[in-house]
Amino acid sequence: MASGHSDLPLPLPFAHQADLVRAHQKDEQCKGELRRLVLDAVEETLGGRAAAWQPTAGAIADYAYSMFTVLAGSMLGEEYCELLSVSPGLQPSD
């Protein structure tokens, strides 16, 4: 006779709102730091002409951050808060 126990894995718990906010803040902090470093490098390289390139350099820094995190599979804020992005078919590993 079958018992009431199911072999289905337990669902993953949802993150708390505070963890989501903290992860977003960490992502923004890291993105801002990368942007600052890129803008400093542009200013060091171009001198007075850097002002014309600031919007472009900032956009490139933001794009680079997004690409690096997509290629890595998780954002720095998710790693910092130990969060896991899930899709409907993802099951927890044993």
Map the helices and strands.
Elements: H1 17-46, H2 50-72, H3 76-80
Question: Can you describe what's shown?
Answer:
This is PEX10 protein. The protein is mainly α and 94 residues long. The chain has a domain at 17-80. Helices cover 62% and strands 0% of the residues. It contains 3 helices and no strands. α1 packs across α2. The longest helix has 30 residues, at 17-46.
Task: State the main characteristics.
94 residues, 62% helix, mainly alpha
The structure class reads mainly alpha
Give the helices and strands as they follow along the chain: HHH
Helical proportion, percent range: 55-70%
Mean pLDDT: 83
In terms of quaternary structure, the protein is: single chain
Low-pLDDT runs: none
Count the helices. How many? 3
What proportion strand?
under 5%
Distance between the termini: 26 Å
Largest sheet: none
The 3D shape can be described as elongated
Whole-angstrom Rg? 20 Å
Number of strands: 0
Concise description?
This is PEX10 protein. The chain is mainly alpha-helical and 94 residues long.
